[in-house]
Amino acid sequence: MKANPxxxxxxxxxxxxxxxxxxxxxxxxRFVLERDRKALFRLASMQGPVGQALYRRxxxxxxxxxSMLLFDGPRMRRxxxxxxxxxxxxxxxxxxxxxxxxxxxxxxxxVYRWIARNRYRWFGRREQxxxxxxxxxxxxx
Length: 141
Known about the structure:
Elements: H1 8-11, E1 15-18, H2 23-35, E2 42-45, H3 49-57, E3 68-72, E4 75-78, H4 79-89, H5 105-117, H6 119-123
Parallel strand pairs: 1-2
Antiparallel strand pairs: 1-3, 3-4
């Protein structure tokens, strides 16, 4: 029997689920790893077994992935809320991005989804999924 995929509460860390085939998403994953001085976040690729299982656990279609999700315990954030949650966790000065919460999600999310829908066209798609540098591999699920 397969073990259940971890959620943020089981690892003790929030989990960022990202598209490792997307150049923009991979660049953001590396950005987070390099600036997450407290090693708060764990990352999982949507294409990997942990990512696929998390998608299914939360009733999402793993074959139609959003560009980034944030799992923090039982809570799942998506779209602009996920991005703002990540930057909030990085501390100062990145936490200042949470000022965008004054803009209602009903306005933020369509912009986020528009970028997400066009991410491969604008930023490119990797032939092979991004692999974290060795010093960060203990933070990749």
